[in-house]
Amino acid sequence: MKILFANIWNRNLIVKWNYDWIDDKWFIKKDVFKQKTKEILENFDEWKNKLQVNILDILPLEKFDKIYLVWTNQGTNEQQDTIYAARIIQKLLGYNIDVLEYTSNPTDRKAVLYYYKKVIWERINKNDKLYLFVSGGVPAMKEAMVWAALSEDIDVVILEAINWKLVENKVEEIYLKEIYKKSLKLFISNYDWFWAEKLIEKNQRLFGDKIDFLYKLKYTNARFNFDFSVANFLVDKMNLSLNEEDVFQKVEIEDDLKCIKELLDNIEITYKKWEYTMLLGKVFRLQEAIYRYIFEKNTGISTKKDEKWDFAEFVNYIENNVDLKNFLVSNNVNYDQPNTFVLAKILSYFIEKKILEDDDRILFQIAASVDKLKDLRNLSIMAHWWQWVSKKDLDNKKLLEKISKIKEIFNKKENIFDKINKFLLEEIKNL
Known about the structure:
Oligomer: single chain
Distance between the termini: 31 Å
CATH architecture of the largest domain: 3-Layer(aba) Sandwich
Order of helices and strands: EEHHEEHEHEHEEHHHHHHHHHHHHHHHH
CATH class of the largest domain: Alpha Beta
Number of helices: 21
């Protein structure tokens, strides 16, 4: 349905007759408006040929399925109330018009906004198209009508009279879009790309031509959640500048070192997002990845499964290295697969035999220190219990300091997600 809302004000009614209570523009004087409109309504048949609707008459009323006119009635001797004028206009226009009463102060923005949110919610369905006529009336009532309507999930068209012609007002594009851009900045600055993405999708009538920006949000959210297949797919759909190509890149999961650097950046952002329980899972995945990286770098032996037998290359390496094998056996280590426990024992052996370079030794020691968080992880929902994980728990173990040291060893400087955000926040200006 097409539904129209309009406020009634004291310039919507013209009386074409010479009376001392009529001004030089045929309007009823404000100080007697309520009194005289009451008299006119009570004797409508005598007055109807002297009356004319002003401004509202340019509306194509026949095109609307329902029309609501809002009058004011403050219940006092307030002469500017439009309670009787609205009923007169209702009779003069003669269409399917309902009149609604507002009884509070029309300049009270909070009260008017609450009123309009209520009457719109009660009368408008999601599939209706709402038209708001905003020419004339108390500014607070016009503003409240607009913002109450825009706050609902409905299609809104704002109309006004300019030089006696009916035009659509682009207030959504001008004001609402700026409010949404402020929300986008807040979401993105807090690494909440999912809700920034949803905000763009829900308001495609405002941002519909900014598909690349939406792709960038989807890409970043997918990348942060390790959905690299989606992220890589979106890279091919984006029109990127040369500067952007260095940022919105495909993630190569076959490159273990790049994936470790990706995980380091991800952990930093997870900490900033206060997702501490999730952080624990990522930290222990980092520990395993670093162990595998150091082992493969120093031996040239893969820790991945073999197609013919689970970990044949890894097991054969140990079997052929008698001293290492004896070390593991003497420590009751079953080396049939390269899990975190087995790799930690092997790397401690390498340190004892001075096989590792200084950076690899320090890297291993930092990664091994993560074991201090093992009890916390095991008691959390990430493992076997329901205990919460707090920022204080992680700060006491100096987790971020450890992550920074690992990044320093890998010569990893700016966080990729902070780098992406710089581009996104800058692009908001052009939306």
